[in-house]
Write a structure and sequence with these properties.
- By secondary structure, this protein is α+β, with helices and mostly antiparallel strands.
- It has two domains: about 300 residues, Aminopeptidase, CATH 3.40.630.10; about 120 residues, Alpha-Beta Plaits (2-Layer Sandwich), CATH 3.30.70.360.
- Helix content is about 40%, strand content about 25%.
- A hairpin with a 5-residue loop joins strand 1 and strand 2.
- The N terminus is likely disordered.
Amino acid sequence: MSIKSSLFSFIFTLCSLCLSFGQEQAEIPVQKVYKEELSEMTSKNMVRAAMAYIKETDSITLQDHIHLTEIPAPPFKEEIRAKEFLKMLNQIGVDSAWIDAEGNVLALRKGKTGKRTIALDAHLDTVFPEGTDVKVSFNKDTLFAPGIGDDTRGLAMVLTVLRAMNEMNIPTEDDILFIGTVGEEGLGDLRGVKFLFSGQGPKIDAWISIDGGDLGRVNFKGLGSYRYRVVFKGPGGHSWGAFGLANPHHALAAGINHFVHEADKYTKDGPRTSYNIGRMGGGTSVNSIPFSSWAEIDIRSHRPERLDDMEKILKAAMHKGLEEQNAIRRHGRPLTVEVEMIGNRPSGELSPDLPLIQKALATVEHFGIKPAITRGSTNSNTPISMGIPAVTIGRGGKAAWAHSLLEWWADEEGYKASQYALLLLLAEAGIGD
């Protein structure tokens, strides 16, 4: 086996292991009525033609995929990609399209009755800062670029589904919104989807997101997270001349030590809960007592009350570190600490008996695949927490190293994920007579 083959084998294994952490093992039975409805729908000539069209025009989907990937979309700076995505939606054809006050791209395709509105979403933003090289490179059917999978493939799928529906003149009963959201990643804190469901956006009755995962992912359980920025501040000074001042770095180190010790004990039992010190910084030079020291912390759990408990542990630990460092200072003013919440992704869980979830499961089985029930932190968290039918499905193909400069996506029957998105969307929106 070559070095390259060995590397790819390792990556596929690692990717599978990572996905399994979010996968729920329980099997959910699919009610007969939804299987029958799907069978009837897929027997329609226009649906069969749309499915074939998606496969035949896979090269167009790939072109859209590459084109959008090479348009940078850093956190909070998605405007250029948003404008291009809007242009592409309009070129395919919709009744109206616009960019809202938060920066989301929305395109409306009206239904026969318009009694309900169904959304098909993928997020515009990536985790990569300005200046990142996002040029796509190739190795046979594998594409390499930061953001190539997460979530630019999802955007290309949204375009493909719309194009297939238009080409085959498939009418729906309900209105459909094709959406590219901002702020899904990192400190974006789901700002795009939160805006849509804040009362300032259109009324959305059911939500389908396309994000990470293979064909067959069905995510209707929101993994909640709290995120914090902890900042210790003090007078700062020369490491020799001002020695004896309270040191923010020392206090932060002590606070982290106390937090990890207590958090480790708490998370060993009960519903799964995680914690991570993701970023740290501060100081001006090696021979200076810093003026400030900061860290960013991510806490996740299935249960909201566990997040609240972890917040108490975090605050107590940081204040203990503050007290210890202030107690040993020899002169100067004491340190202060601020623990600020900078992210709150809501948690929740929908009933597997909801029609949208049943339709998602039935559609997966239509492809001869066993549904992979997952719990994740995606755009669906917000509607799930509000009790609104919502599901996140996978973007298909094969991918790994998301959020890294080594990210890649392989086109292994990638068209099937677009077919799946089409069928689920039509099943929920209903085909008009």
